[in-house]
Amino acid sequence: MSNTEQPSNPEPETPNLEFEGTTPYEDYVRASVLTSLQHPLSDEPGEMVFLVTTQVMELWFTVLVHEWSTAARAVRQDDLPTAMAALRRSVPELEALNASWKPIANLTPGQFNAYRSALGEGSGFQSAMYRRLEFLLGDKNPSMIIPHRGVPAQYEELEKALYEPSLYDEVLQLLRRRGYDVPDEVLDRDLGKRYAPDERIERIWQEIYSGPQDTELVRLGEALTDVAEMVWRWRNDHLMATRRAMGSKQGTGGSAGVAWLERRAQNNVFPELWTARSHV
Ligand code: HEM
Questions:
Q1: Is 261 exposed, middle or buried (0-12, 13-18, 19+ CB in 10 A)?
Q2: What is the CATH classification number for the domain harbouring 203?
Q3: CA of 247 to the centre of ligand 1 (A)
Q4: Quick one: pLDDT at residue 6?
Q5: Can you give the pLDDT at residue 12?
Q6: Which residues, at least 6 apart from 271, have a Cβ–Cβ distance to it below 8 Å?
């Protein structure tokens, strides 16, 4: 700009300041509700970040349940573009979920002990949204819904999710519709039980992965593998944070703690997508 020219509008336009009642931001985000839910149980200043991290993770679980329910429905309707879009969105969401471990990943036992007793018997094990998330992945177990009996509406919702086909079940049905020999025993099994790997399903993935790589089913397999890998990472980051914060003590939820979590973290979801790789 030359010295003689004056800016026509020196002040950038300022945002609107006047609203009747609550702001449109508040109406959409409900920030005042969200930020009124942080009630630490101890006087330890470090408890706040533990509580908020847990709440943030609950919100991510909610997003993931939304994405994978969308994906499962779309697979059922043979709408693979919608399913793939939901699965692909869920991968960076899982990365964001896992990044939430950062602030509490390195707690010393002393720091954790400072508010641990205030948690009483409270444990993430009792998270209803985490159970829905696991059920969608095919990690089912009827005893996992027992803690929620005291809240009938939540219990009913979990019970429904327990017996509904998981995302992986919908994928197996799709493989059958695409002409693969998915056995009846796999499709008609008790859906309320944890999905058990089956060699015949492994052979189907082996066949898919042995063919051309640029097919819809390889892309679907890879999107599911990305999800499975990130779920494994969440479980292992949780295990490591727990090992650092409390060693081999018993968990607040009554389990053997690290030993119990170690067993849980070993499980890979969508098992045949992992084992089939050895035969391609
Ligand atoms: C350093 C902090 C943490 C420690 C020491 C810890 C410890 C534990 C332990 C020992 C268990 C086994 C059940 C029990 O006996 O309580 C457990 C389960 C669980 N925790 Fe945490 N936890 C931590 C942070 C979190 C956070 C932030 C979340 C987020 C929601 C969370 C979610 C879960 C879930 C979902 C389970 C059940 C896992 C399953 O069923 O396989 N935990 N935790």
A1: buried
A2: 1.20.58.480
A3: 13
A4: 56
A5: 81
A6: 195, 197
Pocket of ligand 1 (CB under 6 A): 53-54, 57-58, 104, 107, 112, 123-125, 127, 130, 238, 241-242, 245-246, 251-255, 257, 260-261, 264
Q: How many CA atoms lie within 13 A of 187 on its CB side?
A: 13
Q: Is residue 53 part of a domain?
A: yes
Does some domain include residue 185?
yes
Q: What distance in Å separates the CA atoms of residue 273 and residue 202, rounded to the nearest whole number?
A: 7
Q: What is the pLDDT of residue 11?
A: 74
| Weakly modelled stretches of the chain, pLDDT under 70 | 1-10
pLDDT for 277 equals 98
- Report the separation in Å between the CA atom of 175 and the middle of ligand 1, taken as the mean of its atom positions: 35
Residue 98 lies in a domain: yes
Nearest residue to 276 via CA among 193, 180, 190:
180
The model carries a pTM of 0.95
Return the pLDDT at 1: 44
- If you search the block for the tokens 């829905």, which residue do you land on? 132
Tell me how many domains the chain contains: 1
